[in-house]
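Lab channel / #folding
Pinned by the channel admin:
"Please post every new chain as: sequence first, then the structure tokens as a reply. Keep commentary short and put observations after the output so the thread stays searchable."

First post following the new format, from NK:
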Amino acid sequence: MFRSCSSFLQRFSSRLKVQPDNDDHPRQKESVKKLISSPHEQSSRPPSVEDDDEGHLIYRHGDILRDRYKVINTLGEGTFGKVVKVVDSRNEKAVALKIIKNVEKYREAAKLEINVLEKLAEADPESRRLWVIMLDWFDYHGHMCITFEMLGLSVFDFQKENNYQPYPMEQVQHISYQMCYAVKFLHDNRLTHTDLKPENILFLNSDYDVSYHTKKKREIRRVRDTRIKLIDFGSATFDHEHHSTVVSTRHYRAPEVILELGWAQPCDVWSMGCILFELYLGITLFQTHDNQEHLAMMERILGPLPYRMCRKTKTKYFYHGRLDWDDKSAAGRYVRENCKPLKRYIPMIDEDHRNLFDIVFRMLDYEPSQRITLAEALDHPFFAKLPAELLLHKQDQRSSSLSMEVKSGLRERSHSLSR
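Reply from TO:
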């Protein structure tokens, strides 16, 4: 899979983050003003501080930012800026430093991400719900900078370095369970992530063991620790905030977003269905860059779009309530040759596979209101074989029940003493 140079380049280029340009994004104006006026900021700009043509901060190994963070190496790069491994001189620990481009729209997005992370910290001070911990933030001469705990590779990067080898079933179960648990916490706090994808799910530690696959005649990596955390809250949106028309990276974009019918938390669930499929099979479910082709792929894989959605949308992808698509065109042949009904992707028929594809089907329901909720997903049979110590939501339920019993006992004791 993906052995030819051309197919590899196509696969690599398809993963570039697609972010809509939303200059008018009136979210959390008060928080933004608070961040702008914060003493964290530095206004002076020494001549030694330079940016490249794209707005990235120019730095070198050994540079020290803010008299505290020593640059070690670059961990990754995106449309927003770069992530750098640095050592915090206060405790000599390695942390990840996200350096945002010196570009206004990315600065504003970073301030919104800081606001979201601060709100999550208030709701979950110990980060038990598997979201990345923000350690510090500051403005470095026009570059918003955020430091995070150091994590491992993303589930995408690990899979890419493993020649897109699918994850074993039990690892898919644990990774996707944690994803449901973490995103449910966001949804419970009236927040939609809006950019869930394998690149934004990081292992706590991506160390691995190696074995030789005789049939494929190559070494296969197996990650040792499947614990994960969610990252990248730059596009996360609270229910009461402005909702951009277009959200999510292309391959994980829900149909209601493409059809401009409005979106809410269920768009995250759609993205998770796509991710679950990709973790297990090592291929992207919707490999396209065009809206109409994307919808054609959906119909090929999942069946016809609901008539209600086709009639309600104001987009020009339909004719008399049906997708305006030519199956005999070059694009039509591409869709037929590269997509098939979802059930035909099931490699074998056993309980685990039936459950896996059942939860994927339910996550990929066209109608957002009919899509499985994450509370329902956590109790889905697909996760039934996970060890009890990994079922975090069950632990939460027991803790909540115990807390209520203690409070009830205290009330009864207080009542009896007052008598």
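NK: The two ends are 76 Å apart (CA to CA).
TO: also worth noting, Confidence is low (pLDDT under 50) at residues 1-34, 36-43.
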